[in-house]
Amino acid sequence: MNKKRWIALGIAAVLFFVSLGFRLMSSVFTADVESVMDIPQQKFQEEVIEKGTGNKIAILELDGVIQDISTSSLLNSGGYNHERFLEKLEHVGQDTSVDGVILRVNTPGGGVVESDEIHDKVVELQKEYDKPVYVSMGNTAASGGYYISAAADKIVAHPATLTGSIGVIMENFNFAELADEYGVEFNTIKSGKFKDIMSQSRKMTEEEHNILQRMVDDMYADFVQVIVEGRDMSESKVRELGDGRVYTGKQAADNGLVDALGSKEDTIAMMKKDFDWANAKVVKYKGGFELNQFLGGTVKSMFGKEADLAALQELLRQSAGPRAMYLYSK
């Protein structure tokens, strides 16, 4: 074999191993590392907020958009983790040492299904585990955040909290006119008349709009019913308040959407007073050690912007399709 062929073979080998390396890194970026390595996560840790020797109150924090978007991915290691939060609710329910639960809600809302799953867990805490649930609202507890809060035994908001935004939204972009202007043509092959409903490549028909509007109306009716049952409020009153607008905490207290104004500390004091738990121990349930979160930070520090871009691409890929949301969007 002559020298040129040896060089060509060497280049081919280098390209092969480089390609293999990129594929390996791509797998690492999207894999559930705990599953691959079969390393169990630690159970939830308790941080003592107030010492006490009597009953125990557990605080759980719901922070961020309520959306299940493969939170086990290595590059999506931060932010709200839906599966983990549901596990935390289940854990605090089964923990016989916990007598009461305070949800610290700071979210603009999120997915219809995810919000409903949390709502059901709150109801389960009350009915199956016989534990009172209070909500302490942070900066924002709107739409899906209020949907979850409606089931609570007591809702406490800061006077400046943004809450309400009762309703459902479904939206997407339409590039039809822009595509026509630049001569871009879309080819769509579909099995049924409405398979490409909410297509970005053409104008929505009136029939399609009516189909989607009925879906949104049905989901809105579910939202209304959750508030009717949770707040003991008439349907007509809920629909009057639930036109999509947001309210300040003070306005929400005036119109009956929240019970009291105050901070997280005030909410703790209210629960202690309401149940005569003067010497209650107050703890905050944290997530414990998670391998994805640890390695995710390491990977991002190593690969910088490339890692951030990969995470963004994964987020866009998983949330690309239009979906109904209980979401307050500014």
From TrEMBL:
Residues 127-274 form the Peptidase S49 domain. It comes from the Bacteria. Belongs to the peptidase S49 family. The keyword Transferase does not apply. NCBIfam families: SppA_dom (TIGR00706). InterPro entries: ClpP (IPR001907), ClpP/crotonase-like_dom_sf (IPR029045), Pept_S49_SppA (IPR004635), Peptidase_S49 (IPR002142), S49_SppA_C (IPR047272). GO terms for molecular function: ATP-dependent peptidase activity; serine-type endopeptidase activity. Keywords: Hydrolase, Protease, Serine protease. The gene is sppA. Pfam families: Peptidase_S49. It comes from Lentibacillus cibarius. This is Signal peptide peptidase SppA. GO terms for biological process: proteolysis.
